[in-house]
Specification:
Double Clp-N motif; about 180 residues; about 0% strand
């Protein structure tokens, strides 16, 4: 499938790996892909992100993604739902970090089993990231595009439920908005 990716889409995938490695993550997730998209300049996705205002909120987006990782991948909607059941996620995170260190739920490299097989010393892709890449292929096919561009990856990240789609929506980037800007 990677051979169908444009130069910009390949750069996003490789950039996501670099983000994961820099953060010591045990796998590449959708958040790493979003950060790699935000790194891009002069691509279709970078134009969309700038048009929708997300490019100027990078620090806030990165902070929101970091918070979700710290909560073990729970979105704010998940956290709010659990609060409705009387479960204080912040208190649980605090207790886990007291016992196991800061970021214990964030998936640091070296934990057994979570990340899967390593490829040439690189961190593997999480199920979430793999699903986003497959979804980007489906989106490109549905739009009758021959190649998968970084805009298809952005559309895939906004298409489903989860942390990345929630963080993007909180910053004004929705699937409908991305689709509208792409025309």
């Amino acid at each position: 499938m990677f051979e169908r990716f444009t130069k910009d889409a390949r750069a996003v995938v490789l950039g996501a790996v670099e983000h994961a490695e820099r953060r010591g993550a045990d796998s590449v997730d959708g958040g790493h892909m979003l950060l790699a998209l935000l790194d891009r300049e002069a691509s279709r996705a970078s134009f969309v992100l700038a048009s929708l205002g997300a490019a100027r909120h990078r620090d806030s987006i990165e902070e929101a993604l970091s918070g979700a990782r710290r909560r073990g991948g729970l979105s704010q909607a998940d956290t709010d739902a659990l609060a409705g059941l009387g479960i204080d996620v912040a208190a649980i995170v605090s207790r886990v970090e007291e016992a196991h260190g800061e970021g214990a739920l964030a998936g640091a490299r070296g934990k057994a089993g979570r990340g899967g097989q390593r490829w040439l010393g690189r961190v593997p892709f999480s199920r979430e990231a793999k699903d986003a890449l497959v979804k980007s292929l489906r989106i490109a096919t549905a739009r009758r595009d021959r190649r998968i561009g970084d805009e298809h990856i952005l559309l895939a990240l906004t298409a489903g439920p989860g942390v990345v789609a929630e963080v993007l929506a909180d910053h004004g980037v929705t699937h409908a908005g991305v689709d509208r800007v792409l025309g």
